[in-house]
Automatic annotation (TrEMBL):
Gene3D superfamilies: P-loop containing nucleotide triphosphate hydrolases. It is a peripheral membrane protein. Pfam families: ABC_tran. Residues 4-243 form the ABC transporter domain. Belongs to the ABC transporter superfamily. It comes from Streptomyces smyrnaeus. GO terms for molecular function: ATP binding. Keywords: Antibiotic resistance, ATP-binding, Nucleotide-binding, Transport. It is found in: Cell membrane. This is ABC transporter ATP-binding protein.
């Protein structure tokens, strides 16, 4: 049994269809999640990525038991998070986008209050230490910075020693050190066997942290797999400048180049052979390739390409779905 199982999930918001043509608009409401399936194994870090409004939060809320699916099934630890909320809730930790705690309380009071309503709670001081707020216990919540509030939200999500942890944009507003600390903490939790599902807009974070990920676009999963698998679907890039007087047409045919003046970009799924051909050609012809760079695609490039494809006019319900077997 996987820790999280999602099968054919749809989530529709009731109400009138908003003005304009939106993917997902249908009679009697708006379908924010449109038949998605994925699973998260025990002890795995899984990232749900997507542009604003892609449906990530709508999905996570169903997993957290805050909303009922319009169609499909979800299971968390083998249980229905909505129908069996009383059983699931004590075994999960939730860090929402907006914590919304009473701002007059201090950090320590807030953590103690939370621990007071949690069975088998971690000592509040320990949870605050874990997120680096050990030195801020006497500060009122309203005086915390945005990043410190996110740390407090995370501490509260950890107080119940959750088996499954939901992190909705956990590092938004954190400085680079906070993001790095949070990444280390999440890795530490994984080492203890905690299953983590996170949403994030920081693609580098997802690339470094996630064992597997899914990219959502307009309510659907359009790419999924390990970060390497998702990135491997995208071409690598070689860039350089040709010396004046050397026309791009002289490049070997095996190197699929696009030139803008002297600047040349090669996009290829065969980086090593293309680079070898290019370098041999350059040596044989005595051509200097200025500013030569060769690199694999990044998750950010893969993501932007998917997002741009989704925004192209005429891009409707049917899209090329890139599924990578788990
Ligand atoms: N209560 C609601 N009623 C109607 N539509 C909603 C409601 N909540 C969200 N939506 C719509 O559902 C879609 C998905 O929203 P959701 O918040 O799940 O996206 P997201 O991927 O989490 O975005 P973000 O990255 O901005 O947090 C959006 O188009 C949003 O406007």
């Amino acid at each position: 049994m996987d820790a999280i199982e999602v099968e054919g999930l749809k989530r529709r918001y009731a109400g009138p269809v908003r003005a304009g043509r939106r993917a997902g608009a249908a009679e009697g409401g708006f379908e924010a999640v449109r038949d998605i399936s994925f699973s998260v194994r025990e002890g795995e870090i899984f990232a749900l990525l997507g542009t604003n409004g892609a449906g990530k939060t709508s999905t996570v809320e169903v997993l957290e038991g805050l909303a009922r699916p319009s169609a499909g099934t979800v299971r968390v630890l083998g249980l229905d998070p909505f129908g069996e909320r009383a059983l699931v809730r004590p075994r999960t930790g939730v860090m929402l986008q907006e914590g919304g705690f009473p701002s007059e309380l201090t950090v320590a009071e807030t953590a103690a209050m939370w621990a007071g309503v949690t069975s088998d709670a971690r000592p509040p001081g320990e949870a605050l230490e874990l997120v680096g707020l050990g030195g801020r216990t006497g500060v009122r919540v309203k005086q915390l910075s945005g990043g410190e509030r996110r740390r407090l939200d995370l501490a509260l999500a950890l107080i119940g020693r959750p088996e499954v942890l939901f992190l909705d944009e956990p590092t938004t507003g954190m400085d680079p050190e906070g993001r790095r600390d949070t990444a280390d903490l999440v890795r530490g939790l994984r080492a203890e066997g905690t299953t983590v599902l996170l949403t994030t807009h920081y693609l580098e974070e997802a690339e470094q942290l996630a064992d597997r990920l899914a990219i959502m676009q307009a309510g659907r999963i359009v790419a999924s797999g390990t970060p390497d698998q998702v990135v491997a679907q995208r071409p690598s890039r070689i860039t350089f400048r040709l010396p004046a007087g050397v026309a791009p047409e002289r490049l070997p045919l095996s190197v699929p180049a696009a030139a803008d003046g002297r600047s040349v970009t090669v996009k290829t799924h065969e980086l090593q052979p293309a680079l070898t051909d290019l370098l041999l050609w350059a040596r044989e012809n005595g051509v200097a390739l200025e500013g030569l760079q060769a690199r694999s695609a990044s998750l950010e490039e893969a993501f932007l390409e998917i997002a741009q494809a989704g925004n192209r006019p005429g891009h409707g319900d049917e899209r090329a779905v890139m599924e990578v077997p788990a």
